[in-house]
Design goal:
InterPro entries: GAF-like_dom_sf, HTH_MetabolicPath_Reg, Tscrpt_reg_IclR_C, Tscrpt_reg_IclR_N, WH-like_DNA-bd_sf, WH_DNA-bd_sf. The protein has 9 helices and 9 strands. By secondary structure, it is α+β, with helices and mostly antiparallel strands. It folds into 2 domains: 67 residues, Winged helix-like DNA-binding domain superfamily/Winged helix DNA-binding domain (Arc Repressor Mutant, subunit A, Orthogonal Bundle); 162 residues, 2-Layer Sandwich (Beta-Lactamase), CATH 3.30.450.
Length: 251
């Protein structure tokens, strides 16, 4: 059952704004399944009214427009992210939060912690921090449009005693690897991992963060990065962002 669902979703995810119609071979190549298997899936979706065949190509039907209209207009990032924050907090036993840009600050929109340890990262919803240092600030700035970012780079360079070029290089590295890590940049002894959340326009206005005492983060950094990336991908998909789905298994 799960394999069938993955295959159907993979077909839908094959389409994009620049490739709104695809041949059967195109779809087979994108979902990495044999053409015969792909044909059976595509034929079923066509009969169900989700795909339309135009000569030798397929495109998504207007049925998706009707479904899109059923999405709650008030559904926001906090409602979407909350279950993921809760699950990630339970998995890491650390503080998990979500952040957005507010003028020249970043603001915490929501925070969850399940840890009862006396030493833990504390982040309060509504807390505002200048966009200078820390993994969340760096992720949010790394994905900013150039016009919005340029006035901030000089402040970051001055605060961190680096050149503008060095700051921009770090932002480029963050975009390439898809996350940022900081150790004691904002608060001594506290580390954090932050991952971008993409919306329907592939823009980044929010990020997911896992915060922990540096001593515990050092022991679990690789695992926490993997969990944070997966969590941000779940939120991004539900928020409309284009994020790769797990490859469907072949016959």
């Amino acid at each position: 059952m799960m394999r069938s669902v993955q295959r159907i979703l993979a077909v839908f995810e094959s389409f994009s704004s620049d490739r709104s119609s695809l041949t059967l071979q195109d779809i087979a190549d994108r979902i990495e399944l044999p053409k015969s298997t792909t044909f059976r899936i595509v034929q079923s979706l066509e009969k169900a009214g989700y795909l339309v065949r135009l000569e030798q190509q397929y495109c998504l039907s207007f049925r998706f427009t009707r479904l899109a209209g059923l999405v709650k207009s008030t559904l926001g990032i906090r409602e979407i992210a909350r279950p993921v924050l809760q699950e990630l907090a339970e998995q890491t036993e650390e503080t998990v939060s979500i952040h957005a840009v507010s003028d020249r600050n970043r603001v915490c929109l929501d925070s969850v912690t399940t840890s009862s340890a006396p030493l833990r990262a504390v982040v309060q919803a509504g807390e505002q921090i200048p966009l200078l240092v820390g993994s969340a600030s760096k992720v949010l700035m790394a994905y900013m449009p150039k016009a919005q970012l340029t006035p901030l780079v000089k402040n970051v360079a001055k605060a961190t005693k680096r050149t503008n070029g060095a700051v921009l290089e770090e932002f480029a590295m963050i975009r390439e690897q898809g996350y940022a890590v900081s150790h004691g940049e904002r608060l001594l002894g506290i580390s954090a991992i932050s991952v971008p959340i993409k919306d329907v326009n592939q823009e980044v206005h929010y990020c997911l963060s896992v915060g922990a005492p540096t001593v515990r983060m050092n022991m679990n950094e690789k695992e926490f990065i993997e969990l944070a990336v997966k969590g941000a991908e779940v939120i991004s998909r539900q928020f409309g962002g284009e994020v790769a789905l797990p490859a469907p298994t072949s016959d």
